[in-house]
Amino acid sequence: MRTRNGLRRALEEGETLFGASADTFSPTVIETLGDVGLDFVWLDFEHGGPSPYDSTVFEELTRAAEAGDIELLVRLPAPDPPLVRKVLDAGVRTILLPRIETADELRRAVAAAHFSYDGDVGDRGVGVGRTARWAGYVDSHVEGEDREVLVGTMVENARAVEHIDELLSVPQLGFAFIGPADLAMSMSGGDPTERSAEAVQAAIDRTREACLDAGVPVGRIRNDVDAARTARDEGYQLIRIGGDLESLRTTLGARLADLGRS
Prior knowledge:
Layout lengths: L5 H7 L4 E5 L5 H10 L3 E5 L12 H12 L2 E5 L5 H9 L4 E4 L5 H9 L4 E2 L2 E2 L19 H8 L1 E6 L2 H5 L1 H5 L6 E4 L1 H8 L9 H18 L3 E4 L3 H9 L4 E6 H15 L4
Parallel strand pairs: 1-2, 1-10, 2-3, 3-4, 4-7, 7-8, 8-9, 9-10
Antiparallel strand pairs: 5-6
């Protein structure tokens, strides 16, 4: 299996990376997205897909990513340390933690992803999984894992923005990703009709600026080409530019419309 995390290396070198979601969770789609030339595939286990607690679901997904020379970016359903360990042991290299509000809960999840953490022993633990060649341990396994794992946090609620500087100071945090829809909901007090576009944009700008100041790569979704270019110019390094289902609807819908079908 592939052990090198190209996504982490590229971020560390200051590159901008473009990806797309695979809402079908199809290995064929994942491999094809790699062939297209994208850098990462977003797999959202928070809102869909099979159970990430069944580590066997990652076997074909990670193999497809290797075949397509593309990296998986897996959003977990919760920042749960046991789940963090299980998904990483299954062969995933890059995970994204949702619903984070405080540095303490982020630190627990990041520590669970590392064997060595902040100058001390981490909370990863050695287990049987694909990354350990199903218990065919090698001397470099522990050290190698810590060099390749990449952990990100969603910034998608008002409390996260309020605590953004503390979140970004968590040791070994790899990146942050802004979730504007949930952020707007959080800032509206539960009534999206009451949200202020200006206030949400200010929170997004504050998060981006804090990330740039802290040297933490930051990402967001930009489905329009011009908006993606602007995001790149603004310093975003992870940009999700669409997805498999959205592309099907847009491309085939436009062709039907051109043929006189609506």
